[in-house]
Amino acid sequence: MKSRLVRQKFLDFFRSRGHEIVPSAPMVIKDDATLMFTNAGMNQFKDIFLENAPVRHPRIADTQKCLRVSGKHNDLEEVGFDGYHHTMFEMLGNWSFGDYFKQEAIGWAWEFLTEEIGIERDRIYVTYFEGDPSESLESDLESLGFWKRWVEGDRILPGSKKDNFWEMGDSGPCGPCSEIHVDLRSEEERRNKDGRELVNKGDPLVIEIWNLVFIQYNRTADGNLTALPRKHVDTGMGFERLCMVVQGKTSNYDTDIFQPIIGAIASLSGRAYGSDDRGDVAMRVVADHLRSVAFAISDGQLPSNTKAGYVIRRILRRAVRYYYTYLGLDKPFMFKLMPALIESMGDVFPELVAQRATIERVIHEEEQSFLRTLAGGIKLLEQITADLRQKNEKTVSGKTAFELYDTFGFPLDLTELMLKDQGMNVDRAAFDREMEAQRERSRSATAVRTDDWVSVGPDQEEEAFVGYENTRAIVRMSRYRKVSGRDRELYHLVFNTTPFYPESGGQVGDTGYIDNGIERIPVINTFREHGLVIHVTERIPADVNLPFEAVVDRGLRMNTASNHTATHLLHQALREVLGRHVEQKGSLVNPDYLRFDFSHFRKMTDDEVRQVESAVNKKIREGLPRDEMRGVPVGEAIRQGAVALFGEKYGDRVRVIRFGDSVELCGGTHVDTTGQIGLFKILSEGSIASGIRRIEAITGEKAEAYCLQLESKMKLLEKLLNNPQNIVDAVESLLKEKSALEKKVEEFNRRSTESFRNELLRNRKQVGDLVLITGKPEGPVEDASLIRDVAFQIRNEVDNLYLVIGAVIHDKPHLAVMISEKVVREKKLHAGEIVKKASREFNGGGGGQPFFATAGGRSPENLSRAIDKAAEFAYLAATKKEG
Ligand code: SER
Q1: CA dist., res. 99 & res. 93, Å (int)
Q2: Among 72, 233, 235, residue to substitute to test ligand 1 (most atoms within 8 Å of Cβ)
Q3: How far is CA 398 from the centre of its chain?
Q4: 3-state SS of 557-621?
Q5: pLDDT digit string (tens) for 540-569?
Q6: How far, in Å, from the CA of 633 to the mean position of ligand 1?
Q7: Chain center to CA of 160
Q8: 168 CA → ligand 1 middle, Å
Q9: From atom 6 of ligand 1, which residue's Cα is the shortest distance away?
Q10: Entry pTM
């Protein structure tokens, strides 16, 4: 049975049992501070479990792209070494929100596996939660009872909190769970050892495939469990593992999900899969990581140096390390695997097909730049092992291994593998300490403590957003909590209704204030979390029960709206001018400016930028009215041509914003007519990653201010240039004149240097065995380099030289003394000492080497005295005998 069919059977099975089939949510999470990536199918329903969002369908089923590479669920380091761990995987799930519970969930799981898919009954083992006295949790005898209807007692096992109590993270919805394991060993092995003994023991052939979670509790920030008002079902089945079982394989990588990719790796690397252990590990690593990286990019998460982007970068680098070391590939090649990935998953996840070019470019560039870094890391490792050998040691310090990991992206397992070849190892405990220290550093850098919510008064309806129509509303507080950061405390307030727009879709949150007639409290930001609109303040009101007037800063809101609408017009204009391949890759809309990232493969020409800018301004002048539709079914909106963004999570009903030809799914706030934007001005266009460009632009008052500033600069220039007819011509001729003058000055300097030199040579005097020359240039001297240059020229022409030059430069006296090296030696003279003494005459000081020194001073009228003083030393020396 092909994997496609397996997936379809699952969805059909639950559809026919009253479940609504929903699409996978994005794998990259954008609005949850507690989670970077979807790590379970239930993430997208967290709001429903917490009762912050309404239940639209009490029964749902889907396949969800998950990534387990950080936080509570992290499998990254396992990947490659066995056949069933993955970073990215698909999770098949069925949910009940306050509808059916254990009995149906267990019965259907059994029916699906044994009847629909046909897994042999006696290969299946199930577990149930044995209870945990420390948390006063009782044994899940209910599940045990339901399982007994289907499974013989000796294949039902009790399990501890670690295996049988499922939690998404440190806080959130959770509950006891019941796991389904399958024993894939041969008959003979099964006879020799009872499968019971291998459940949850890490045996690669006795593995968990499905987890049925019975969500009953919420784990609060203080670590306590509180019962949820209603009970829910959350099941998650590893799709790749299920396919392995169905297809009779012993590794997920042998199924038709991975085979096209493994095949492509084999042919590009010229090696067969299954021929050598390390090569196989590398192939599995590459195949797995390719999926994670490609899906993350298609969700809009580019590799970067922070947060989610950094995690993706590390995954990709891990793959590069493996193929470089064990497949002998030293050129980018992962990007060439996209057709194979599309072959296996493109029909179910069309984002891969639509964004193929972008994904390929980004992966290619990342591979290329990391391969360069890698060379440095390998050199370092070679050096380290050579040093150790010399010292007769075998263990690389934790610090060094950590540096390799942190700076060069060498995962520990790989460093260890490379060292093993040479009979060496890593001080693992010390490495772990370094890792922990780094975790601690980043924890304390961002440490925030979020207290649990405090409810205010009776249950209030929450999150009726009225901000599209109004910027003020009378509101009541329904809950609040305190958030303590490193250096300040903030409060999160939730109201029954609000005019404040919470940050989303690139548009920043509204600011403003709340006022109850007694006190006024500024709202410094607004954002959304799990279906709640959270207003951030620096204090809570004395009386939280009074009604407030909530008032949004209208001016800022208008500017933001103007920038948001302009972003839509810009998107549309880019698609018209550059082509339909332009896809939005990110945007920021705030009151000051807008930033728009999009896919396009070369720099925009000046002409293209101008065309786009005028296309937008044309739409502004047309005064197009906003045409807004709410509650449109998402499929309907897309059929009408609305632009939906990949990686964005849309509800089943969406808001559609149209301004002329621009139609987008969007929850943001917009102007009433494009005319209100006034003016649109692009400030810059540049690259942020391979194939991704960024435009920054301004609108309205900011654009006007920008133009006024340009104008006043221009006026000032015109004034400085005496109001010429054509300012560009005037500047050009000025530049020409300037360069002609520079040439003249150069020529003049050359000549005056020459004439000064000649004059000095004419001034030479024989004093004993020395040739004494003294002099001052005629006319003004611009800088001291003249006397220096002349002194060095004369040194080359006159033997036994004793040269003293004085000059007044910008009203300051200067003195230079140059003495032939031979004279210095024979007469024990030191030009530095001489200028020091002589410069006292003009109130100055200086110094230098024995053969050449300079000095400056304050009394130019005494320059001649200083020259004479310096010359005196020549007379004294001339009469002195050698030695
Ligand atoms: N949430 C559970 C899991 O991820 C079941 O979906 O395993």
Answers
A1: 15
A2: 235
A3: 27
A4: HHHHHHHHHHHHHHHHHHHHHCCCCCCEEEEEECCCCEEEEEECCCCCCHHHHHHHHHHHHHHHH
A5: 999 998 999 999 999 999 999 999 999 999
A6: 29
A7: 38
A8: 8
A9: 236
A10: 0.69
